[in-house]
Design brief:
The chain has 305 residues and is an all-alpha fold. It has one domain. It has 14 helices and no strands. Helix 5 packs antiparallel against helix 13. The longest helix is centred in the C-terminal third of the chain and has 35 residues. It starts with a helix and ends with a helix.
Length: 305
Amino acid sequence: MWSKFKHQTTLHVIIFIWGFTAILGKFIEADAFVLVWYRVVLAFISLFLFLVLLRKPIRIDSIKKTLFTLTVGVIVAMHWLFFYLSIKESTASLAIICLSTATLHVAWLEPMIMKRKALKSEFFLGLIIIAGILLITFRGSSDEINGLAIFYGLLAAFLAALFSTLNAKLVQTVSASKITLYEMFSASIIMSIVLLIYKGLSVETLTITNKDFLLLLFLGIICTSVAFLVTVEITKFLGAFTVSLSINMEPIYTLGLAAWLLHEHKELNLDFYLGATIIVGAVFANAFLKARIRKRKNSVRQSAV
């Protein structure tokens, strides 16, 4: 009992830390391109050092799987780039709510990639999520909602659903630590190319304030590498479903932190929070429905035995 409580508490501390990722996008003065470059580079270096110190294997034994993993890393980098572009254009609250719509995309991506039957409940919940988005878009702010920020946020959500679904397929044959290491490596490469094309990859471009560097260290090491390693370890004790269900608390933590630290509640009205509640509620409903479906399948399987 104590062991389960300890792991549950640790998991929610990690999710609370993840809630800071959107908030840091506002506190860090560097633009989204430089911010994401530092995040992926610091995450790759720190994760590589952690795995070496822990004497974990880091080599993927198949060229095909290696290339697949590196490709997914590019998608991860683009997801973070659009996520932080959304934050810079508007608010952390808006960006995290847009990101919650990833569930809508998983509803049609997962059956295609994982070769499973599509669930009607997922599409129904997807429609509910769309209603929440429309409420936020047209009535969710006392000021004019930034359409570009919503576009960036929804694109980030699609990319999040895509790389999550691809990783779910990949993790069946490759360890999670190797996946993340290789993805952070290719994310670092692609962000270096993006910076070179759009801003020029130079000392001047990458020069940031001491405050930004400290915040980026926290973002790259604590919020990414350490949080990832701890979550993988906790999953062994709590199970994948409990962990994925708990992660749905991240938008709630972020909204609370945004109101407290950024005072964003002054910019957002009741309709925004109503739309946010609809979206987050649909995400939780999706998790519970999947739990019931999984339980029903297990019961049928045991009856057959």
